[in-house]
TrEMBL record:
The lineage of its organism: unclassified sequences, metagenomes, ecological metagenomes. InterPro entries: Proteasome_assmbl_chaperone_2, PSMG2_sf. It comes from marine metagenome. Coiled coil: none annotated. This is PAC2 family protein.
């Protein structure tokens, strides 16, 4: 799989993909916090990362320096990471991809994701996003789902999206998945604008 550093190649059973990007698609860090919670609570294991150099402008997405408790300095780059979950109590395995929204080469970036999902036989990709809205923290969060797959749309009673305009990486990735005949669902939460 191009552009990836693969630490181990998991043997998965009918996996579902879960994709989250920080940045424009992630109001109040809602989607990324959900993905990190799932990753931690299900003991997901990192198995691959995508090379960051071709896709990020480091003046916009700089690496971060941290200091360990022993005083050692570390530098972490904004590289996309892939995790997997295999649990006997789950009907299907899970592949979780978490990344900062890339700055450059969205088509190549999206195609890299498609290739990874195809190599793992992922049969459905769910992307999570969040947007700021005129909503209250005292009410349940409104979540809207969409899919370009007519069968999924009908089964889950999604309304076909009529949105036209600029899109983030989730729109580009979902289009690439659609072109590759990989079913995809996009779930967006409306987050109170004051959070």
């Amino acid at each position: 799989v191009n552009n990836f550093s693969i630490e181990e190649y998991p043997d998965l059973h009918d996996p579902i993909g879960l994709v989250v990007f920080t940045g424009w698609n992630d109001a109040a860090n809602s989607a990324s916090n959900a993905a990190h919670f799932i990753t931690k609570s299900l003991n997901a294991r990192r198995f691959a990362s995508l090379a960051e150099e071709p896709f990020y402008d480091f003046t916009k997405n700089p690496p971060a320096v941290s200091v360990s408790p022993s005083g050692e300095r570390n530098l972490s780059w904004p590289n996309p990471e892939f995790f997997f979950v295999k649990q006997t109590d789950l009907e299907r395995d899970l592949v979780i991809a978490i990344a900062a929204e890339p700055d450059l080469r969205w088509r190549t970036f999206s195609q890299s994701y498609v290739e990874m999902f195809e190599s793992l036989n992922v049969s459905l990709v769910i992307s999570l996003g969040a947007l700021l809205a005129e909503s209250s923290h005292r009410r349940p969060i409104h979540v809207v789902g969409s899919s370009a797959d007519p069968d999924i749309e009908q089964r889950l009673q999604f309304r076909r999206s009529s949105y036209e305009g600029p899109t983030g990486i989730l729109g580009a990735l979902n289009f690439a998945l659609q072109q590759a005949d990989v079913p995809a669902i996009s779930l967006w939460a409306s987050v109170p604008h004051y959070i």
